[in-house]
Amino acid sequence: MTGTKIACMGLLALLSAATAASAQQDLFRSDEKLDVQALTCGQLANTYQQDADALTMWYSGWYNGLAKAHLFNLNQAKQLEHELIMYCKANQEKKIIDGIAVVFKDERAQRGIRLAD
């Protein structure tokens, strides 16, 4: 391979990395409030990791508060966040809260937890 071809391949790699990085959305602009019920999976899947972590932690607290659950398992939370992000990458037009319902339903089923009708 010639030096020119190697240089071109390197430039293409840098450009694609820059494009991927610029495609990420910054969801937390200063003083902007987010409507967490309106956020889409595409927004979660395409934001920075620290923003995704903050959002999923907020959702976790919200849902645990609604359930009056007072326990927290960090490893389980990370696993559920991963599953939510994977769902969101595949269903970017859906709302995050819909993705959470899917992930929680699957989690409850795996644990044998049934909700009252």
What would the keywords be for this entry?
mainly alpha, globular, single chain, 117 residues, 10k-s Protein, Hypothetical Protein A, Chain A, 5 helices
Structure explained in plain terms:
With about 120 residues, the chain is mainly alpha-helical. The protein has one domain: 10k-s Protein, Hypothetical Protein A, Chain A (Orthogonal Bundle). The protein has five helices and no strands. The protein has helices spanning about 5-20, 40-45, 50-65, 75-90, 95-110. Helix 4 packs across helix 5. The chain is globular, with a radius of gyration of 19 Å. The chain starts with a helix and ends in a 6-residue tail after the last helix.
> What is the 3D shape?
globular
**Rg, Cα atoms, Å:** 19 Å
Estimate percent helicity. Answer: 55-70%
Identify the CATH class. Mainly Alpha
Summing up helix and strand content along with how strands pair, one would put the structural category as mainly alpha
* Distance separating the two termini: 67 Å
Indicate the low-confidence ranges by residue numbers.
4-22
Largest sheet properties: none
Number of helices: 5
CATH architecture: Orthogonal Bundle
Taken as a percent bin, the fraction of beta residues is under 5%
CATH topology: 10k-s Protein, Hypothetical Protein A, Chain A
Topology, element by element:
Blueprint: H1 3-22, H2 41-45, H3 49-66, H4 74-90, H5 96-111
Helix pairs in contact: 4-5
Q: Could you give a quick summary of the protein structure above?
A:
By secondary structure, the protein is an all-alpha fold. It has five helices and no strands. The protein is globular, with a radius of gyration of 19 Å.
